[in-house]
Amino acid sequence: MTFATYVRDTALGRRPRAKPATTAALDDALYELGRIANNLAQLQAATGDDTYGPWVTYVGKDMIERLAERNDLAGVLRRNLDAINGVGHLINGIARRANMGREIEGGERDEALTLLKDMLEPLRKAIVRTAKGLPAEESPPEPGPEGDYAL
């Protein structure tokens, strides 16, 4: 619960209640993913590098849409929130430098996008498993040749 919400509820005579942990984990993860997508869009605009475009869509649209209102994935999100945040800080730093006109090396871009992909993989697996009616906590089988486990 934010400080402002606490003060407002208390002033209005309501008993303040914190968000359930599942809702908080989902909100935090969606916020971080939105920040990452925003920074990727800034990188694309600042560098003119279209490599970032599909990532903006994947993180900012596909992942967020699939995770929104998915309280059943709160455990997976909570366990991965530090990794999401860490990659977010990395991409934010690169975007900040690009926005100041500094050149971003291809190797640095590739490393950041690889870290992003690795960080998103547990979320992708949880989404796929629950879409197929399987528990989110177990690892899904490897993708088949038809790509049936792709987002």
Compile the SSE list and pairings.
Layout: H1 3-11, H2 21-47, H3 52-67, H4 74-99, H5 106-131
Helix pairs in contact: 2-3, 2-4, 3-5, 4-5
**What general outline do the C-alpha atoms trace?**
flat
Q: What composes the largest sheet?
A: none
Determine the number of helices (DSSP H or I, runs of at least 4 residues). Answer: 5
Note poorly predicted spans. Answer: 139-151
Q: What is the count of structural domains?
A: 1
Q: Fraction of residues in helices?
A: 55-70%
Structural class: mainly alpha
Mean pLDDT: 85
- What would you report as the Rg, rounded to the nearest angstrom? 18 Å
The end-to-end span amounts to 33 Å
Give the total of beta strands.
Answer: 0
